[in-house]
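Question thread 4412

I'm putting together a teaching handout and wanted feedback from people who do this every day. The idea is simple: show students a protein as raw sequence, then show them the structure tokens that encode its fold, then repeat with a second protein so they can compare. Below is the first pair exactly as I plan to print it.
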Amino acid sequence: MQMLRDGAGRVWIAEGVRIEMVDGPTRRVFSARNDLALGTVVVMAIRGRHVYAGGDFGLARFDGRRFVTLRSDLHPFLSRTAGIVETSEGDLWLNTVAGVVKIESADLDDAFAHAGRSVKARVFDRDDGMPGVAQQDSRSQTAMEASDGRLWFVTRLGVAWIDPKRLSFNSLPPPVIIKSLVSGGRTYMAATPIQLPKGTSNLQIEYTAPSLSVPSRVRFRYQLEGVDDGWVDPGPRREAFYTGLKPGSYRFRLMAANDDGVWNNTGSTLEFEIPPTFFQSWPFYLLCAALALVLLWVGYSLRLRAVAERIRARMNERLDERERIARELHDTLLQSVQGLIMRFSNIAQDMITIQPAHRDMLDALDSADAVVVEGRDRIHELRRWSAARSLFEVVTRTAERLLLPDKIEVRVGVEGLQREIYPAIADELLRITDEALFNVSRHAHARKVSITIAYGAEALVLRIIDDGTGIAPEIVAQGGVAGHFGLVGMRERAGKISGQLTITTVAAGGTQVEVKVAAEIAYADRPRPIWLALWRRIAVKRNGR
């Protein structure tokens, strides 16, 4: 228990973990709930208007309303404060387990104004001649100011004094020396820039700062540019360790401070370089990137080829089914109808005497012949690609069949080197061509029609352009006219072969229908690399010149 009276006549009583203030009839208790986070209150001291309390976990000062605590978890040298003296100059001297602590007046006010900041203080310990640490559990002051200005402190090993007016100050910053760099069991002197072996990732830098006053209190801070975000504070340690370094040029900077905190800001530097191995070099990274791109391209090509194979298989199944139907019609229905026609012809020859019946029979036979011709035409339509030699040939015949040559000028052209096309793909393209040319002949009122088949390295393009009235944009936007399925069928056929169908109005008048099918899907021959196709195109142009 401690009891003190301040200049205002208030009585302060320290009791365990709390402090009680008695001001006349008023009583007030301060504890951990009221910012007195000291643990057990060990000592109290009063100097003028300041009331101090020291305890297990730091130092507190009364600011007129409450106690402000400087906790020892942020300021370790304030742990277990057992003696407090404020000198006439306003400096505070503390007797703690760390030794004797001096905090100057200006720093003291700043510390209590910003309790979360670091406190600037000077510690006197065994290296300064302090015998032991502060006496604990005495329940009384262990620090006192004598009439001659000396300060006396009670420690576990005796009594010590210090004269604040005769303190020495080391104003000389220590020289900073980087001794060596150690890596892979080899030591490199720090006199010149160092080039380490390829693949080096771990190293150790040894340094020092000679000081003849108190060498153990020399403090360091260093930074490896490009690795450390800021300055590293290793305390008194004289080695720096780095692991996982990458190839490159590095600069190590070092500064030191003496026992009184005077820093050598010029410091010292060490430059070293770690050359890259082949697997850490840019050529290797570029090679990996190129390999990754190749793998992605191969994966994309395989995927596209698989999709093309599925589309071609599905279209071949449809084509085979159509050919089967054509055979059935030819081998059954048309043959049967042809046989009936022959029988009725024989009967008609025996009915010459009955003129009206004979004439009706001949008319019926003519109708039957027309049915057979129409059936054969239908069979030809079903199997027309099987007998064709090229897409150009079939498209030309289709244009001549659907458009009147005397009224509409038709031009069919080919771009690029002609290649073999899968029959199923060509058949769908012909169906789209039929519908497009039918629309031209019926609705466009065109005088010229241009059909272009472009064999590109990346895609097969079929383009039909007329100079007619042009299709209305709203019809294209709606995908067709209600009750009509021409445009719908064209889009469906293009979708079956994973093609892109584009219908646009030409600025000069007319309509352009364009179908684009990927080369991997359209061409039956082996796909050529793009670079080979470009080379052949250049060669063709040169030969043409």
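The second pair follows. I'd like the answer to focus on this one:
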Amino acid sequence: MSIFLTLAVVIGALICFIFEWFPVDFTAICVALALMVFGLVTPEEGISGFGNSATITVMAMFILSAGISRTGAIGSLRDLLLKWGGKSATQQILVMGFLVGPISAFINNTAVVAIFLPIVEDWCRKRGISPSKMLLPLSFVTILGGMLTLIGTSTNVLASGVSKQLGYGEFGLFQFTILGIFTFTIGIFYLAFAAPILLPDRLSSQEGSLSEDYQLKDYITELLITPRSSLINKTLRDTEIQRKFDIDVLEIVRNDTHFPQPLGDKVLNAGDILLVRSGKDELLKIRDEKGLELLADVKFENQAIETELNTGSEKIAEVLILSNSRVIGSTLKDLRFRQRYNATVIAIRRGEELLRQRLGKVPLKFGDLLLVQGPKESFLGLQTTRELLVLEQRDVENLRQDKAWISIAITLGVILTAAFTPFPILVSSLAGVVLMVLTGCLKPGEIYGSVRWDVIFLLAGLIPLGIAMDKSGATQWLADSLLSLGGNLSGYWILLFFFVITSLITEILSNNASVVLLLPIAVKVAVSLNLNPYAFMYAVTFAASNSFLTPIGYQTNTMVYGPGGYKFTDFVRLGGPLNLIMMLVTPLLIVWLYGLKVS
């Protein structure tokens, strides 16, 4: 019965993960609760994930990554990328790979992508290359680089924790680095030569083409307030036109004078021209009801729109919703986005989907790209928030650049201490967090905002599942079932089977869930066949990060989905062969480097 109940919880979790009925961290907490209610784990075991060394280590690494980011230490490499990148996408991918990959081995890869995304976009504009040729390789490079060390991804740290639970001890910091170097190098050269060929030009490669990318010429219009209009002598707020109609007033023009936001208290006069974002149907409604006139003789071209929206103190820019953002699940109307940030969202890009109507009612998602218009000062607030990323060079942001070398020294100290002293990575990383604050690289209040709490709760909720799988006998039962089905296969084919099945599961669940579920089963199968358990642990760990097929399998893939204007098929086109290469190469490398049989 305990095996049945445990597997029922697992299946329920799989269904919730696949259909995304709830956020993954909420689903994980529900899993832990169900295990406690059914008596499959004790209450102490049910909450043990919050005190697990893997969970705390991952949390500390998020904070260290924030310290590096806030001091601008990584951003200083932009000059090297621009200097050595050359004129071709192939050369740029190689240079980017060998710069970004090693950084991702020690710094959280979502932070690395957040820093390099605007840098790569800027390089693409200057070289006349579509960003869609470069951004997906950027994501894949950070995934490959994360497999160079133990702390490269939360998945590696979790796998190390599971290894300790199984009695094999925690992984060393560089325990599988040699394997990671081989897979990283193979992946880099594949991307450098395949991406320019396989990835289409999804976005314009010309500088200053936001209006064309978002097809704004059909949605940005001028409205003239006629002498018969009911809006005369009322403030824009009192007219309530932005509440009653699907319309956003971006600017008011009066006698060649452009009034920027905030516009709510601006009294409207006859002859004023309103620059608005709206669909054709809504424009006809407001024209007839409010006595306005469409300036149909003004035929905006894309460059003219961009010039109009960037006049004087106004500007437009793209803003990416990050994975730890509290705006996820809310609408622009719920957030009172215009009032909060003194800026207006005029379009939303969600992968290949482009939304330009009824934006206030659209629930926001991680990876959404917002085209925002407003005063230049408003983007200062957007740039300093840790939940939104303005995709432009952050020359206006007040980075603590005088602390850059201190943050690098602290991170190197954490790495060297974990590698060459008896102190585990948990202790050295927490010491690094304390030093980041004491030296001023981070402010105490910034610690909590730098942690990916969804990942922390996901780990904390899944770790009890691994305990329940072991206690109930479900892991042993599944291992015995696999042995009965494939007991006559050679060790290599069984190793390959676990790599393939983990790669497939991580695409529809999460890499962390794949490790928790499959790593214990793989170890029990290895022990039963007198095979090297470490070989199987490495296979599952590497396969869990072998996520190149979909935009939702890995956080960095989701981050570049909108900015690159990608379609779902683009991930399959470039990532499918890379997945296949890793499936064929990694198990062979594991057998060669670590051996398959127990000596």
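Top answer:
Good format. For the second protein you could add a caption like this: Strands lie at 220-225, 247-254, 257-259, 273-278, 292-294, 314-321, 344-350, 353-355, 369-375, 388-390. The mean pLDDT is 81.
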